[in-house]
Structure formats: C-alpha cells, structure tokens
Amino acid sequence: MGAEGKTDMERLGLFSEMEYVTIGDSYIPSLNRPFNDAAGKGRQMFPGGSKLMSDLQAGYFDAQFKRVFTGEGYSNPIKLRRLYRLDQSKRNLGKSFLPSSVSKKRYPNLTIGKPFAYSAEIYDKGPRKKGEEYDESKLIKGGPFRLNLYPREYFDPNPYHVDKPLPPLKKTEEKKIEKPFRPSSPSKKMGGMKAGTFDPYPTHSTDPYKTKYEKEVAVNKSGKIFHPLAGTKTRPVRSVLQAYVLKSVNTKNYKTLNLESY
C-alpha cells in the first residue's frame, strides 16, 4: 500500500503488532485456532477441592469440608410440591372440617313462631289529630270536582288551557342607549409599504456569519503544514500469569492442586 492513508493494523483497531509472549507451550497452527475465542464458553467454576489441616475455620474445626454450589443447579418443582403435600397430610390428626348447613328460611305459624299481628293504620293520622289548628286546605290539590257541566269534548285541544284567568304580564323596562359605543380605529402605517417600520426601506446589513479574521497556518521552510510525531500507542498484551493458570489448572488436577505463595 502507499504512504498515505491508514495501515491495516490501524483499520482493525490494533495500533501495533501484538507481542509474542510464550511460556513454553506448543505451537497451535492457525487452522486449528478458534475463530472468536472471547465469544465461546470460558473456564467455569470448579466446586470442591483439596482440604488441608490448618488453623483456619474450614481446615481445622469443621469435620467435613463445606462446598458451595453443590447440588443446587437444578430443583424439580413437581417433586417439591409432592413432598410439601405429603408433609401437610401428616399434620392432619383428625377428620377434615365440614361446615354446618346453611340456615333455613323461617315461615310464620309453621314451627314455634306465631303469625304476624295486623293492625289498621289511618293515612295521615298525625296531621288529622290537630283538628282545627291544622289547615286542611294545604292537603287539597286543585279545585273541586264538578259534574253536569256544559257538554263538551273530553279533552280540550289546547293542553295549556286553564279555567282561571291568568295574571297580567309584567313588562320589564328597557334602558335606551343614548350614545352607542364605537371602538377606536386601528393604528395606521406610514405612507408606503414599510412592513411597520419607520424607514422607507430596511437597510442592508453585511453577512454576520462571515469570519472576522483568518488564522495563520503554521508552515515550515518548505511550505508544508507541520504534523507532530505520533506518541506511544496501546496494544493488547497477554498476561503471563493468566497463561500459566490456563496451562497448569484443568479439570483433572484442580482437586489435588496446591496453591503456592511467594
């Protein structure tokens, strides 16, 4: 590729070539290497392990080593419900509780009850006791019922007809308006179309977005723009300690492996 543009390493996001850190492991050809190692299933948690007698709580006082995440991966909900029902059935010492029957409806003169006594009650007994003191005209609604009147139709064609004369209508006095209200005229614009301004024509202003001054570009003697040198760039580095752990600890020797402290 030419001198201009980015390199292939920079296009991939790697600013420099990765260092070759080795711990003496065998070479793996590129065909057998995984395509995306980070997306795969990595190292899992190994429960249990070797136990040594020591002054610690887990190594001296406990008779059996307590492991975590052992037998807790799966639980059968159907089995748990059956065990719960079996435990609850053992607690029932007596028979199941049977509620009493629903209460029956009672009828008079059927069992021990007597029929309800009947007593006559005069309508509006309270107001009639007052006699002369009470104005009975308040109880009368409308005029008296009269028979043998002048023969006419059963119903009058006018539904609003009343035998009694109506009271005279009350006329409301209307106030005469002496002088009508006239709103003031809207404000006028000055002669000619000036869009509400006082000048005959809006003055033209220069472009406010024009650069006021131009900044000088620093160039060298040859007339080219100066580009500073690039600093140190980051690169991915594989940890040597992690490589030793991946190589030494596996599924076969993780129970018998002893930790060494320096």
Automatic annotation (TrEMBL):
Coiled coil: none annotated. Keywords: Cytoplasm, Cytoskeleton. Residues 174-209 are annotated as: Disordered. Its main location: cytoplasm. It comes from the Eukaryota. It is found in: Cytoplasm, Cytoskeleton, Microtubule organizing center, Centrosome. InterPro entries: CFAP96. GO terms for cellular component: centrosome; cytoplasmic microtubule. PANTHER family: UPF0602 PROTEIN C4ORF47. Belongs to the CFAP96 family. This is Cilia-and flagella-associated protein 96. It comes from Geotrypetes seraphini (Gaboon caecilian).
